[in-house]
Design brief:
By secondary structure, this protein is mainly α. The protein has one domain. Helices cover 71% and strands 1% of the residues. The protein has a two-stranded antiparallel ribbon with strand order 1-2. Strand 1 and strand 2 form a beta hairpin. Helix 2 crosses helix 20, helix 14 packs across helix 21 and helix 19 crosses helix 20. It is globular and about 80 Å long. It starts with a helix and ends with a helix. The N terminus is likely disordered.
Length: 543
């Protein structure tokens, strides 16, 4: 009998350990789903009531609660229309392929129209990056440090060395400059148009791969038609829009990996991810979400293949760092001279200025505090850590201030339905020796979009869309919480990671726009579910 026990016990013990590991994976997934439900429902209620605006076209944030009742009425109207379309089976009958192609055409036509109508130029970071590309393309360039603005960008301790994550984008701009010369900015705008169209198209594909439900996919595509901020960002010659289609493609390919269990999909997914991160390194939260999903899958299924994917993700991320370093050395810059991350956390915890009393933790120029000739990494790290310690001390000594700080910071990030998209083409201040965008001559149509009735209408419609995205996502995660597989939850956990990151990091509402973009497939599904429930209620009332 004793011999029998000694033979049987080890396998049983191993089974128990494997069961515990699987239980941990299931527990993490359940926790992530319920955290998402709570997060989206709370932010949805806040978004309904509060709206963040920047009416003077600076970073001066203002809050309003005037339009919540109109947003609620419009949301009910949208759900009613979807209910009618679903009841008459129109959502099911719409040809998804045709709708996708129409969406692409709409995005290209509207995007080109907006670029022509806005008729602006690059400013702030997009200007510095493009200026660096132009200057480094000039073989006769001779820097004088300190010197003019070009010197400030390229000299040791200047803009690019302290922000090395911009360097891959500089090389991209150099490539465009080599082909298009003085038309580089216009070429960049057109590439933004194509990337916007690709992003919308891929969101439909993401919905299709996640849910395999035609009505959900078609509603996702319809929501993309309404997402005007991404169209408005076409004038923003920066990495944000360029990165989006690659990151959405990475999510689609990860879903494909889980469906087919073939490593090649994971590898191609990570290639797309690295390209996206080279354009916009701050979107690392997508990588974090994908790794979390692979970790949960590895724990649940005890899969070696998922473990390999985690290792590959780390390797690919390190590779992106090597690419950035090689790019810096190609331009003759020091890749190891970037500002410490503590600088951005320090800024994200600093008090607002008197001129912008609601801008808690927003960009305030702190990373540019040190002139290139006084750029000392060790001293900068000491000063930024001291700033962080002072902020923490202020929070401890005054809990009411801490609540005000983080609540207003969160509100200003998550309740701006335009995500600074119109600000990007209508700044009311400028850099050195450049005209002020908001003072350029504009058409009556453009004036109305920035200041008049069209502006009020756009703000109201985008406010409604923002609420619907949050509401629809909440509905999907709640009603499908028991059905959602691990490969389906990335769009739900990405915004969670972003919320945690940007509570501490420098705040801007433009940084939060990708969270709403990845919500669109879940929101499309949730609005159809809501429309069906609405139809059932109406039918009961009628009967």
């Amino acid at each position: 009998m004793n011999t029998e026990r000694s033979t049987i016990s080890p396998p049983r013990e191993k089974t128990k350990k494997l069961f515990r590991v699987s239980t941990i994976g299931n527990g993490i997934q359940t926790l992530a789903i319920w955290a998402s439900i709570i997060f989206f429902s709370i932010v949805g209620m806040i978004s309904l009531i509060i709206t963040t605006t920047m009416p003077d076209y600076t970073y001066n944030v203002q809050f309003t609660t005037r339009n919540w009742w109109i947003v609620l009425i419009l949301s009910i109207v949208v759900v009613s229309i979807l209910s009618l379309l679903s009841h008459k089976d129109i959502l099911q009958k719409i040809d998804t392929r045709v709708l996708s192609h129409v969406l692409v055409g709409y995005s290209v036509i509207f995007g080109v129209f907006w670029a022509a109508l806005a008729n602006v130029w690059p400013e702030w970071d997009p200007f510095y990056v493009l200026k660096a590309a132009q200057a480094t393309s000039d073989p006769s360039l001779q820097l004088q440090c300190p010197g003019d603005e070009v010197s400030w960008i390229l000299c040791p301790g200047g803009y690019l060395e302290r922000s090395p994550y911009q360097i891959p984008l500089v090389l991209f701009d150099k490539f465009l400059y080599y082909i298009f010369g003085t038309g580089t900015y216009l070429a960049f705008e057109f590439i933004n148009v194509l990337c916007t169209a690709a992003t919308f198209y891929l969101l439909g594909k993401l919905a299709e791969y996640i849910f395999s439900e035609k009505r959900f996919t078609n509603t996702t595509l319809l929501l993309c038609f309404a997402f005007l901020p991404l169209i408005f960002y076409i004038t923003f010659a920066y990495g944000n829009t360029l990165a989006l289609p690659f990151l959405i493609a990475a999510l689609i390919l990860q879903v494909n990996y889980f469906k087919n269990r073939q490593l090649r999909y994971a590898v191609i997914s990570l290639v797309c991810l690295v390209i996206g991160l080279l354009f916009k390194s701050s979107m690392i939260y997508v990588l974090a979400a994908m790794v979390v999903i692979w970790i949960i899958a590895a724990l649940k299924d005890r899969s070696l293949r998922d473990g390999i994917c985690i290792i590959l993700a780390i390797v690919f991320y390190i590779t992106s760092g090597f690419i950035t370093s090689a790019s810096a050395e190609y331009l003759g810059l020091n890749p190891n001279n970037g500002e410490p991350k503590t600088v951005w956390i320090a800024m994200g915890l600093q008090k607002p200025s008197k001129s912008s009393p609601n801008n808690y933790g927003w960009y305030n120029g702190y990373p540019l505090k040190w002139a290139p000739e006084n750029y000392d990494l060790s001293q900068i790290e000491v000063e930024s850590k001291e700033s962080i310690k002072q902020s923490i001390s202020d929070f401890k000594n005054d809990p009411a201030y801490a609540w005000t700080f983080f609540s207003k910071k969160f509100l200003s990030e998550w309740t701006d339905p335009l995500y600074e998209s119109l600000l990007a083409s209508n700044w009311s201040h400028r850099g050195n020796d450049r005209p002020i965008m908001s003072e350029r001559e504009i058409s009556p149509v453009l004036h109305s979009i920035y200041y008049g009735k069209a502006n009020k209408m756009i703000l109201l419609l985008m406010d409604t869309l923002q609420f619907l995205l949050l509401f629809g996502t909440t509905v999907t995660v709640f009603y499908k919480r028991k059905e959602l597989s691990i490969h389906q939850i990335a769009p739900a956990i990405i915004p969670l990671g972003m919320a945690l990151l940007y509570l501490l990091w420098e705040a801007q509402s433009q940084y939060i726009m990708p969270a709403y973009i990845v919500m669109i497939p879940f929101a499309g599904a949730g609005l159809v579910i809501t429309a069906d429930k609405f139809s059932q209620v109406i039918n009961r009332i009628k009967s």
